[in-house]
Design brief:
The protein has about 525 residues and is of the alpha/beta class. The chain is about 60% helix and about 10% strand. The chain has helices at about 10-60, 65, 70-115, 115-120, 125-160, 165-170, 175-200, 200-225, 230-270, 335-340, 365-370, 385-390, 400-410, 410-415, 435-450, 465-480, 515-520, 525-535, and strands spanning about 295-300, 310-320, 325-330, 350-355, 360, 370-375, 455, 485, 500-505, 505-510. Helix 4 packs antiparallel against helix 8 (about 200-225) and helix 13 (about 400-410) crosses helix 15 (about 435-450). The mean pLDDT is about 75.
Protein backbone atom coordinates (compact mmCIF):
# COMPACT_ATOMS: atom_id res chain seq x y z
CA UNK A 1 0.00 0.00 0.00
CA UNK A 2 1.31 3.42 -0.97
CA UNK A 3 2.34 5.59 1.98
CA UNK A 4 0.79 9.03 1.64
CA UNK A 5 1.90 10.23 5.07
CA UNK A 6 3.66 13.16 3.52
CA UNK A 7 0.91 13.98 1.07
CA UNK A 8 0.43 17.36 2.75
CA UNK A 9 3.66 18.44 1.21
CA UNK A 10 2.25 17.95 -2.30
CA UNK A 11 0.66 21.45 -2.65
CA UNK A 12 3.83 23.16 -1.44
CA UNK A 13 5.93 21.08 -3.84
CA UNK A 14 3.61 22.02 -6.68
CA UNK A 15 3.76 25.72 -5.73
CA UNK A 16 7.55 25.59 -5.52
CA UNK A 17 7.73 23.84 -8.90
CA UNK A 18 5.39 26.41 -10.49
CA UNK A 19 7.44 29.30 -9.09
CA UNK A 20 10.66 27.76 -10.40
CA UNK A 21 9.10 27.25 -13.85
CA UNK A 22 7.86 30.88 -13.86
CA UNK A 23 11.35 32.11 -13.03
CA UNK A 24 12.79 29.90 -15.78
CA UNK A 25 10.29 31.22 -18.37
CA UNK A 26 10.93 34.89 -17.45
CA UNK A 27 14.67 34.30 -17.46
CA UNK A 28 14.38 32.61 -20.84
CA UNK A 29 12.46 35.60 -22.28
CA UNK A 30 15.08 38.07 -21.00
CA UNK A 31 17.87 35.85 -22.24
CA UNK A 32 16.14 35.42 -25.63
CA UNK A 33 15.86 39.21 -26.07
CA UNK A 34 19.47 39.80 -25.07
CA UNK A 35 20.95 37.00 -27.15
CA UNK A 36 18.92 38.09 -30.23
CA UNK A 37 20.33 41.62 -29.96
CA UNK A 38 23.87 40.33 -29.47
CA UNK A 39 23.63 37.62 -32.13
CA UNK A 40 22.22 39.97 -34.78
CA UNK A 41 25.07 42.43 -34.19
CA UNK A 42 27.75 39.75 -34.17
CA UNK A 43 26.18 37.92 -37.12
CA UNK A 44 26.00 40.94 -39.41
CA UNK A 45 29.59 41.88 -38.64
CA UNK A 46 30.75 38.28 -39.07
CA UNK A 47 28.90 37.73 -42.34
CA UNK A 48 30.18 40.99 -43.80
CA UNK A 49 33.68 39.78 -42.95
CA UNK A 50 32.98 36.33 -44.44
CA UNK A 51 31.60 37.81 -47.68
CA UNK A 52 34.55 40.17 -47.96
CA UNK A 53 37.05 37.40 -47.28
CA UNK A 54 35.47 35.05 -49.84
CA UNK A 55 35.25 37.78 -52.49
CA UNK A 56 38.81 38.94 -51.81
CA UNK A 57 39.98 35.34 -52.13
CA UNK A 58 37.86 34.67 -55.22
CA UNK A 59 39.07 37.68 -57.18
CA UNK A 60 42.71 36.76 -56.50
CA UNK A 61 42.38 33.23 -57.87
CA UNK A 62 44.27 32.47 -61.10
CA UNK A 63 42.66 32.29 -64.54
CA UNK A 64 43.13 28.51 -64.58
CA UNK A 65 40.56 28.33 -61.76
CA UNK A 66 37.97 30.43 -63.63
CA UNK A 67 38.53 28.44 -66.82
CA UNK A 68 37.08 25.39 -65.03
CA UNK A 69 34.26 27.13 -63.13
CA UNK A 70 31.06 28.84 -64.19
CA UNK A 71 30.13 32.29 -62.95
CA UNK A 72 26.68 31.23 -61.74
CA UNK A 73 28.18 28.50 -59.55
CA UNK A 74 30.63 30.90 -57.93
CA UNK A 75 27.91 33.50 -57.44
CA UNK A 76 25.78 30.86 -55.71
CA UNK A 77 28.63 30.10 -53.34
CA UNK A 78 28.80 33.76 -52.29
CA UNK A 79 25.05 34.31 -52.09
CA UNK A 80 23.24 31.03 -51.36
CA UNK A 81 25.81 29.31 -49.13
CA UNK A 82 26.53 32.48 -47.16
CA UNK A 83 22.77 33.00 -46.70
CA UNK A 84 22.59 29.56 -45.10
CA UNK A 85 25.39 30.59 -42.76
CA UNK A 86 23.53 33.80 -41.98
CA UNK A 87 20.37 31.95 -41.04
CA UNK A 88 22.37 29.50 -38.97
CA UNK A 89 24.33 32.09 -37.01
CA UNK A 90 21.36 34.42 -36.50
CA UNK A 91 18.74 31.86 -35.54
CA UNK A 92 19.96 28.27 -35.43
CA UNK A 93 23.04 28.81 -33.28
CA UNK A 94 21.15 31.15 -30.97
CA UNK A 95 18.35 28.58 -30.59
CA UNK A 96 20.90 25.84 -29.93
CA UNK A 97 22.61 27.79 -27.13
CA UNK A 98 19.28 28.78 -25.62
CA UNK A 99 17.97 25.21 -25.65
CA UNK A 100 21.22 23.76 -24.32
CA UNK A 101 21.12 26.16 -21.38
CA UNK A 102 17.50 25.30 -20.64
CA UNK A 103 18.18 21.56 -20.90
CA UNK A 104 21.25 21.87 -18.69
CA UNK A 105 19.29 23.87 -16.12
CA UNK A 106 16.42 21.37 -16.26
CA UNK A 107 18.72 18.39 -15.78
CA UNK A 108 20.34 20.17 -12.81
CA UNK A 109 16.93 20.63 -11.18
CA UNK A 110 16.10 17.00 -11.94
CA UNK A 111 19.36 15.89 -10.28
CA UNK A 112 18.43 17.92 -7.20
CA UNK A 113 14.97 16.36 -7.15
CA UNK A 114 16.15 12.76 -7.65
CA UNK A 115 19.56 11.80 -8.94
CA UNK A 116 18.48 8.15 -9.28
CA UNK A 117 15.65 8.96 -11.67
CA UNK A 118 17.86 11.41 -13.57
CA UNK A 119 20.60 8.83 -14.13
CA UNK A 120 17.95 6.31 -15.15
CA UNK A 121 16.54 8.73 -17.72
CA UNK A 122 19.97 9.74 -19.05
CA UNK A 123 20.84 6.12 -19.76
CA UNK A 124 18.91 6.47 -23.03
CA UNK A 125 20.97 9.49 -24.19
CA UNK A 126 23.97 7.57 -25.68
CA UNK A 127 21.65 5.58 -27.95
CA UNK A 128 19.91 8.76 -29.15
CA UNK A 129 23.26 10.51 -29.70
CA UNK A 130 24.52 7.61 -31.84
CA UNK A 131 21.29 7.68 -33.81
CA UNK A 132 21.61 11.43 -34.38
CA UNK A 133 25.27 11.11 -35.46
CA UNK A 134 24.60 8.66 -38.29
CA UNK A 135 21.50 10.41 -39.54
CA UNK A 136 23.26 13.80 -39.28
CA UNK A 137 26.01 12.62 -41.64
CA UNK A 138 23.40 11.57 -44.20
CA UNK A 139 21.60 14.92 -43.88
CA UNK A 140 24.87 16.81 -44.43
CA UNK A 141 25.74 14.68 -47.48
CA UNK A 142 22.41 15.33 -49.16
CA UNK A 143 22.55 19.00 -48.18
CA UNK A 144 25.90 19.41 -49.98
CA UNK A 145 24.46 17.72 -53.08
CA UNK A 146 21.44 20.00 -52.97
CA UNK A 147 23.66 23.08 -52.72
CA UNK A 148 25.67 21.91 -55.73
CA UNK A 149 22.51 21.47 -57.80
CA UNK A 150 21.22 24.86 -56.62
CA UNK A 151 24.49 26.44 -57.79
CA UNK A 152 24.11 24.74 -61.19
CA UNK A 153 20.51 25.92 -61.52
CA UNK A 154 21.60 29.47 -60.63
CA UNK A 155 24.23 29.20 -63.36
CA UNK A 156 21.53 28.39 -65.93
CA UNK A 157 19.48 31.43 -64.85
CA UNK A 158 22.49 33.76 -64.95
CA UNK A 159 23.77 32.55 -68.33
CA UNK A 160 20.30 32.60 -69.87
CA UNK A 161 19.57 36.15 -68.74
CA UNK A 162 22.99 37.38 -69.83
CA UNK A 163 22.48 35.80 -73.24
CA UNK A 164 18.74 36.48 -73.53
CA UNK A 165 19.21 38.01 -76.99
CA UNK A 166 20.68 34.76 -78.32
CA UNK A 167 18.02 32.69 -76.52
CA UNK A 168 15.25 34.59 -78.28
CA UNK A 169 17.05 34.83 -81.61
CA UNK A 170 17.33 31.02 -81.73
CA UNK A 171 13.82 30.55 -80.23
CA UNK A 172 15.32 28.43 -77.45
CA UNK A 173 13.03 29.62 -74.66
CA UNK A 174 11.52 26.17 -74.14
CA UNK A 175 14.93 24.51 -74.37
CA UNK A 176 16.11 26.72 -71.48
CA UNK A 177 12.86 26.08 -69.58
CA UNK A 178 13.46 22.34 -69.95
CA UNK A 179 17.09 22.67 -68.87
CA UNK A 180 16.15 24.64 -65.76
CA UNK A 181 13.27 22.29 -64.93
CA UNK A 182 15.58 19.28 -65.09
CA UNK A 183 18.11 20.86 -62.74
CA UNK A 184 15.52 22.08 -60.23
CA UNK A 185 13.91 18.62 -60.28
CA UNK A 186 17.31 17.24 -59.28
CA UNK A 187 17.38 19.73 -56.40
CA UNK A 188 13.92 18.56 -55.33
CA UNK A 189 14.87 14.87 -55.66
CA UNK A 190 17.94 15.27 -53.46
CA UNK A 191 15.91 17.33 -50.98
CA UNK A 192 13.28 14.59 -50.78
CA UNK A 193 15.93 11.93 -50.13
CA UNK A 194 17.49 14.10 -47.45
CA UNK A 195 14.04 14.72 -46.01
CA UNK A 196 13.71 11.02 -45.15
CA UNK A 197 16.66 11.35 -42.83
CA UNK A 198 15.43 14.66 -41.46
CA UNK A 199 12.09 13.06 -40.66
CA UNK A 200 13.85 10.15 -38.97
CA UNK A 201 15.37 12.59 -36.48
CA UNK A 202 11.87 12.79 -34.97
CA UNK A 203 12.46 9.35 -33.48
CA UNK A 204 14.86 11.05 -31.05
CA UNK A 205 11.80 12.74 -29.58
CA UNK A 206 10.00 9.40 -29.47
CA UNK A 207 12.95 7.94 -27.60
CA UNK A 208 12.79 10.71 -25.06
CA UNK A 209 9.07 10.24 -24.44
CA UNK A 210 9.61 6.49 -24.04
CA UNK A 211 12.28 7.40 -21.52
CA UNK A 212 9.74 9.61 -19.71
CA UNK A 213 7.28 6.71 -19.54
CA UNK A 214 9.97 4.53 -18.07
CA UNK A 215 10.85 7.30 -15.60
CA UNK A 216 7.26 7.49 -14.35
CA UNK A 217 7.24 3.71 -13.99
CA UNK A 218 10.55 3.79 -12.13
CA UNK A 219 9.39 6.72 -9.99
CA UNK A 220 6.28 4.85 -8.93
CA UNK A 221 8.48 1.98 -7.79
CA UNK A 222 10.68 4.35 -5.78
CA UNK A 223 7.58 5.86 -4.13
CA UNK A 224 6.40 2.44 -3.06
CA UNK A 225 9.83 1.88 -1.53
CA UNK A 226 9.66 5.20 0.27
CA UNK A 227 12.71 6.54 -1.59
CA UNK A 228 10.74 9.26 -3.38
CA UNK A 229 7.81 11.50 -2.58
CA UNK A 230 4.82 11.93 -4.90
CA UNK A 231 5.45 15.69 -5.13
CA UNK A 232 9.02 15.07 -6.18
CA UNK A 233 7.87 12.71 -8.92
CA UNK A 234 5.37 15.32 -10.09
CA UNK A 235 8.09 17.97 -10.20
CA UNK A 236 10.41 15.58 -11.99
CA UNK A 237 7.81 14.85 -14.67
CA UNK A 238 7.18 18.57 -15.25
CA UNK A 239 10.90 19.23 -15.56
CA UNK A 240 11.14 16.31 -17.98
CA UNK A 241 8.29 17.64 -20.09
CA UNK A 242 9.91 21.06 -20.19
CA UNK A 243 13.17 19.50 -21.36
CA UNK A 244 11.30 17.31 -23.86
CA UNK A 245 9.87 20.40 -25.55
CA UNK A 246 13.34 21.85 -25.99
CA UNK A 247 14.77 18.56 -27.19
CA UNK A 248 11.97 18.43 -29.76
CA UNK A 249 13.08 21.87 -30.95
CA UNK A 250 16.69 20.70 -31.01
CA UNK A 251 15.83 18.06 -33.61
CA UNK A 252 15.05 20.82 -36.10
CA UNK A 253 18.06 22.82 -34.96
CA UNK A 254 20.27 19.79 -35.48
CA UNK A 255 18.98 19.34 -39.03
CA UNK A 256 19.63 22.99 -39.86
CA UNK A 257 23.13 22.73 -38.41
CA UNK A 258 23.90 19.82 -40.72
CA UNK A 259 22.86 21.94 -43.72
CA UNK A 260 25.06 24.74 -42.43
CA UNK A 261 28.03 22.41 -42.13
CA UNK A 262 27.46 21.30 -45.74
CA UNK A 263 27.41 24.92 -46.95
CA UNK A 264 30.49 25.76 -44.87
CA UNK A 265 32.39 22.81 -46.37
CA UNK A 266 31.66 24.13 -49.88
CA UNK A 267 32.96 27.57 -48.92
CA UNK A 268 36.05 26.10 -47.28
CA UNK A 269 36.84 24.17 -50.47
CA UNK A 270 36.73 27.48 -52.33
CA UNK A 271 38.94 29.19 -49.77
CA UNK A 272 41.47 26.34 -49.98
CA UNK A 273 42.14 27.16 -53.65
CA UNK A 274 45.62 28.77 -54.02
CA UNK A 275 45.61 32.44 -55.00
CA UNK A 276 47.94 34.59 -57.04
CA UNK A 277 50.44 36.75 -55.19
CA UNK A 278 48.79 40.14 -55.81
CA UNK A 279 50.02 43.32 -54.12
CA UNK A 280 47.79 46.29 -53.25
CA UNK A 281 48.79 49.75 -54.54
CA UNK A 282 52.02 48.27 -55.88
CA UNK A 283 54.46 50.58 -57.63
CA UNK A 284 57.37 48.83 -59.34
CA UNK A 285 60.81 49.71 -58.02
CA UNK A 286 63.80 50.28 -60.27
CA UNK A 287 64.48 46.52 -60.50
CA UNK A 288 61.01 45.79 -61.83
CA UNK A 289 60.41 48.66 -64.26
CA UNK A 290 59.88 47.29 -67.76
CA UNK A 291 61.64 48.71 -70.79
CA UNK A 292 59.56 46.70 -73.25
CA UNK A 293 61.82 43.86 -74.42
CA UNK A 294 59.97 40.50 -74.63
CA UNK A 295 61.29 37.02 -75.41
CA UNK A 296 59.42 33.73 -75.79
CA UNK A 297 62.05 31.00 -75.42
CA UNK A 298 60.88 27.56 -76.67
CA UNK A 299 57.48 27.95 -75.00
CA UNK A 300 55.01 25.06 -74.96
CA UNK A 301 51.57 25.17 -73.38
CA UNK A 302 48.39 23.13 -72.78
CA UNK A 303 45.31 24.48 -71.04
CA UNK A 304 44.68 22.72 -67.69
CA UNK A 305 41.07 21.98 -68.69
CA UNK A 306 42.13 20.13 -71.89
CA UNK A 307 45.59 18.77 -71.36
CA UNK A 308 45.30 16.42 -74.34
CA UNK A 309 45.58 19.39 -76.75
CA UNK A 310 48.99 21.04 -77.17
CA UNK A 311 48.08 24.66 -77.93
CA UNK A 312 51.60 26.10 -78.36
CA UNK A 313 54.57 24.10 -79.66
CA UNK A 314 58.14 25.38 -79.33
CA UNK A 315 57.28 29.08 -79.71
CA UNK A 316 60.38 31.28 -79.91
CA UNK A 317 60.50 34.98 -80.85
CA UNK A 318 61.71 38.32 -79.49
CA UNK A 319 60.29 41.83 -79.49
CA UNK A 320 62.59 44.80 -78.94
CA UNK A 321 61.52 47.88 -76.93
CA UNK A 322 59.20 50.12 -78.96
CA UNK A 323 58.65 47.53 -81.69
CA UNK A 324 55.25 46.79 -83.21
CA UNK A 325 54.92 43.04 -83.78
CA UNK A 326 51.83 41.39 -85.22
CA UNK A 327 50.76 37.78 -84.78
CA UNK A 328 48.41 36.31 -87.35
CA UNK A 329 47.04 32.88 -88.16
CA UNK A 330 43.86 30.85 -88.55
CA UNK A 331 41.34 30.63 -85.70
CA UNK A 332 42.48 28.27 -82.96
CA UNK A 333 46.14 28.50 -83.89
CA UNK A 334 47.15 29.84 -80.44
CA UNK A 335 47.35 33.61 -81.02
CA UNK A 336 45.30 34.70 -78.01
CA UNK A 337 47.04 32.11 -75.84
CA UNK A 338 50.31 34.00 -76.38
CA UNK A 339 48.64 37.14 -74.99
CA UNK A 340 47.33 35.19 -71.98
CA UNK A 341 50.82 33.86 -71.23
CA UNK A 342 52.31 37.32 -71.59
CA UNK A 343 49.88 38.61 -68.95
CA UNK A 344 50.75 35.60 -66.75
CA UNK A 345 47.16 34.35 -66.74
CA UNK A 346 48.83 30.96 -67.16
CA UNK A 347 52.36 29.60 -66.85
CA UNK A 348 54.06 27.80 -69.77
CA UNK A 349 54.48 24.04 -69.44
CA UNK A 350 57.94 24.27 -70.97
CA UNK A 351 60.26 27.09 -71.95
CA UNK A 352 60.52 30.61 -70.57
CA UNK A 353 59.07 34.06 -71.05
CA UNK A 354 61.57 36.86 -70.45
CA UNK A 355 61.15 40.60 -69.94
CA UNK A 356 64.24 42.72 -70.58
CA UNK A 357 66.27 39.51 -70.59
CA UNK A 358 65.02 38.36 -67.16
CA UNK A 359 62.76 35.42 -66.43
CA UNK A 360 59.16 36.45 -65.81
CA UNK A 361 59.27 34.68 -62.43
CA UNK A 362 61.66 37.38 -61.21
CA UNK A 363 58.88 39.96 -61.53
CA UNK A 364 55.86 40.18 -59.20
CA UNK A 365 52.63 39.50 -61.08
CA UNK A 366 51.33 42.95 -60.14
CA UNK A 367 54.48 44.63 -61.49
CA UNK A 368 54.06 42.96 -64.90
CA UNK A 369 50.33 43.49 -65.33
CA UNK A 370 50.58 47.00 -63.92
CA UNK A 371 52.81 47.97 -66.87
CA UNK A 372 50.72 46.28 -69.57
CA UNK A 373 47.34 47.00 -71.11
CA UNK A 374 45.13 44.94 -73.40
CA UNK A 375 42.39 45.99 -75.80
CA UNK A 376 40.28 43.03 -76.86
CA UNK A 377 37.77 42.36 -79.61
CA UNK A 378 35.01 41.58 -77.11
CA UNK A 379 35.24 44.71 -74.97
CA UNK A 380 33.83 44.39 -71.48
CA UNK A 381 32.43 47.57 -69.96
CA UNK A 382 31.05 47.79 -66.46
CA UNK A 383 27.44 48.88 -66.12
CA UNK A 384 28.24 52.30 -64.61
CA UNK A 385 29.20 55.58 -66.26
CA UNK A 386 31.64 56.35 -69.07
CA UNK A 387 33.82 58.15 -66.51
CA UNK A 388 34.03 55.03 -64.30
CA UNK A 389 34.90 52.82 -67.26
CA UNK A 390 37.71 55.03 -68.54
CA UNK A 391 39.04 55.66 -65.02
CA UNK A 392 39.31 51.89 -64.54
CA UNK A 393 42.69 52.20 -66.26
CA UNK A 394 43.87 54.56 -63.51
CA UNK A 395 41.59 54.66 -60.43
CA UNK A 396 41.45 58.15 -58.98
CA UNK A 397 42.26 59.91 -62.26
CA UNK A 398 41.06 63.50 -62.59
CA UNK A 399 38.43 64.61 -65.13
CA UNK A 400 41.13 66.40 -67.12
CA UNK A 401 43.14 63.18 -67.42
CA UNK A 402 40.02 61.24 -68.42
CA UNK A 403 39.04 63.81 -71.07
CA UNK A 404 42.59 63.88 -72.47
CA UNK A 405 42.55 60.08 -72.73
CA UNK A 406 39.12 60.18 -74.40
CA UNK A 407 40.38 62.72 -76.97
CA UNK A 408 43.41 60.55 -77.80
CA UNK A 409 41.05 57.60 -78.26
CA UNK A 410 38.78 59.55 -80.66
CA UNK A 411 36.01 59.11 -78.08
CA UNK A 412 35.48 62.64 -76.79
CA UNK A 413 33.31 63.77 -79.72
CA UNK A 414 30.63 61.16 -79.14
CA UNK A 415 30.94 61.38 -75.34
CA UNK A 416 30.22 65.11 -75.24
CA UNK A 417 27.26 64.62 -77.60
CA UNK A 418 25.46 62.74 -74.80
CA UNK A 419 23.39 64.91 -72.42
CA UNK A 420 25.21 63.52 -69.38
CA UNK A 421 28.63 63.40 -71.10
CA UNK A 422 31.06 61.45 -68.84
CA UNK A 423 28.19 60.59 -66.47
CA UNK A 424 26.31 58.70 -69.20
CA UNK A 425 25.32 55.21 -68.05
CA UNK A 426 26.64 52.61 -70.51
CA UNK A 427 24.32 49.79 -69.36
CA UNK A 428 25.04 46.12 -68.77
CA UNK A 429 28.31 45.25 -70.58
CA UNK A 430 28.08 48.61 -72.43
CA UNK A 431 24.85 47.70 -74.25
CA UNK A 432 23.87 51.38 -74.65
CA UNK A 433 26.93 52.03 -76.85
CA UNK A 434 27.81 50.85 -80.35
CA UNK A 435 30.69 48.44 -80.97
CA UNK A 436 32.98 51.23 -82.16
CA UNK A 437 32.12 53.40 -79.17
CA UNK A 438 32.84 50.56 -76.75
CA UNK A 439 36.21 49.96 -78.44
CA UNK A 440 37.17 53.62 -78.13
CA UNK A 441 36.21 53.65 -74.44
CA UNK A 442 38.48 50.61 -73.98
CA UNK A 443 41.29 52.40 -75.85
CA UNK A 444 40.83 55.49 -73.65
CA UNK A 445 41.12 53.22 -70.63
CA UNK A 446 44.41 51.84 -72.00
CA UNK A 447 45.68 55.36 -72.83
CA UNK A 448 45.00 56.45 -69.25
CA UNK A 449 46.98 53.50 -67.91
CA UNK A 450 49.98 54.55 -70.04
CA UNK A 451 51.43 51.02 -70.36
CA UNK A 452 54.98 50.06 -71.39
CA UNK A 453 53.62 47.01 -73.26
CA UNK A 454 50.35 47.09 -75.22
CA UNK A 455 48.44 44.03 -76.42
CA UNK A 456 45.75 44.37 -79.09
CA UNK A 457 43.70 41.19 -79.45
CA UNK A 458 41.77 41.56 -82.75
CA UNK A 459 40.63 45.00 -81.57
CA UNK A 460 39.04 46.04 -84.90
CA UNK A 461 37.84 42.76 -86.39
CA UNK A 462 34.14 43.17 -85.55
CA UNK A 463 33.68 46.82 -86.61
CA UNK A 464 32.19 48.46 -89.66
CA UNK A 465 34.44 50.51 -91.96
CA UNK A 466 33.81 53.93 -90.39
CA UNK A 467 34.15 52.64 -86.82
CA UNK A 468 37.29 50.74 -87.81
CA UNK A 469 38.81 53.91 -89.25
CA UNK A 470 38.18 55.88 -86.05
CA UNK A 471 39.39 53.05 -83.83
CA UNK A 472 42.48 52.47 -85.99
CA UNK A 473 43.38 56.17 -85.77
CA UNK A 474 43.09 55.95 -81.99
CA UNK A 475 45.19 52.79 -81.92
CA UNK A 476 47.90 54.39 -84.05
CA UNK A 477 48.24 57.14 -81.43
CA UNK A 478 48.27 54.58 -78.63
CA UNK A 479 50.96 52.45 -80.30
CA UNK A 480 53.49 55.28 -80.52
CA UNK A 481 56.53 54.74 -78.31
CA UNK A 482 55.31 51.45 -76.83
CA UNK A 483 56.18 47.82 -77.30
CA UNK A 484 53.10 46.44 -79.05
CA UNK A 485 51.87 42.91 -79.68
CA UNK A 486 49.03 42.94 -82.19
CA UNK A 487 46.88 39.86 -82.68
CA UNK A 488 45.13 40.52 -85.96
CA UNK A 489 42.45 39.02 -88.15
CA UNK A 490 42.27 41.76 -90.78
CA UNK A 491 45.73 41.76 -92.34
CA UNK A 492 45.35 45.23 -93.82
CA UNK A 493 45.67 46.69 -90.30
CA UNK A 494 49.15 45.25 -89.64
CA UNK A 495 51.04 45.87 -92.91
CA UNK A 496 53.20 48.54 -91.29
CA UNK A 497 54.23 46.37 -88.34
CA UNK A 498 57.95 46.03 -87.71
CA UNK A 499 57.57 42.26 -87.88
CA UNK A 500 54.74 39.85 -88.60
CA UNK A 501 54.72 36.39 -87.02
CA UNK A 502 52.58 33.75 -88.73
CA UNK A 503 51.41 30.92 -86.46
CA UNK A 504 49.52 27.79 -87.46
CA UNK A 505 48.48 24.84 -85.29
CA UNK A 506 50.55 26.18 -82.42
CA UNK A 507 53.80 26.61 -84.37
CA UNK A 508 55.53 29.62 -85.89
CA UNK A 509 55.80 28.90 -89.60
CA UNK A 510 56.81 32.32 -90.97
CA UNK A 511 58.00 35.69 -89.74
CA UNK A 512 59.23 38.90 -91.33
CA UNK A 513 57.95 42.23 -92.66
CA UNK A 514 54.89 42.49 -94.91
CA UNK A 515 57.11 42.84 -97.99
CA UNK A 516 59.28 39.85 -97.01
CA UNK A 517 56.27 37.60 -96.36
CA UNK A 518 54.52 38.64 -99.57
CA UNK A 519 57.65 37.57 -101.49
CA UNK A 520 57.03 33.97 -100.37
CA UNK A 521 54.52 32.71 -102.94
CA UNK A 522 53.95 29.47 -101.02
CA UNK A 523 53.58 31.12 -97.62
CA UNK A 524 50.43 31.11 -95.49
CA UNK A 525 50.59 34.89 -95.07
CA UNK A 526 50.37 35.57 -98.80
CA UNK A 527 47.61 33.01 -99.11
CA UNK A 528 45.57 34.63 -96.30
CA UNK A 529 46.17 38.09 -97.80
CA UNK A 530 44.92 36.89 -101.16
CA UNK A 531 41.80 35.37 -99.61
CA UNK A 532 40.94 38.59 -97.75
CA UNK A 533 41.59 40.74 -100.84
CA UNK A 534 39.20 38.56 -102.85
CA UNK A 535 36.31 39.19 -100.48
Amino acid sequence: MVDFANKGKLPSDISRTGLILLIIVVTQAIFSYTRTRIFVYVTEKTLASIRQHIYNHLIRLPMSFFAERRVGELNSRISSDVSILQHSITETLADLISQLLIITGGITLMMITSYKLTLFMLAVVPAMALFAFFFGRAIRRYSKKAQTYVAESNTIVEETLQGIQNVKAFTNEFFEISRYRKKTDEVASVGIKGGKYQAAVSFIILGFFIAMGLVIWRGAILITKGELEAGQLFSFVIYSGFIAGNIAGMAGVYTRLQRTIGAAENLLLLIDEPTEDISENYKPDSDHILHGQITFDHVEFRYPSREEVEVLKDITFSIEPGQEVAIIGPSGSGKSTIASLLLKFYEPDKGRILFDGRDSHEFPVTALRGQMAIVMQDVFLFGGTIRENIAYGKPGASDDEIITAAKQANAWDFIRSFPDKLDTIVGERGVQLSGGQRQRIAIARAVLKDPKILILDEATSSLDSESERLVQEALDKLLQGRTSLIIAHRLATIRNADRIIVINEGRIIEQGTHIELMANNNGLYKNLTGLQSAR
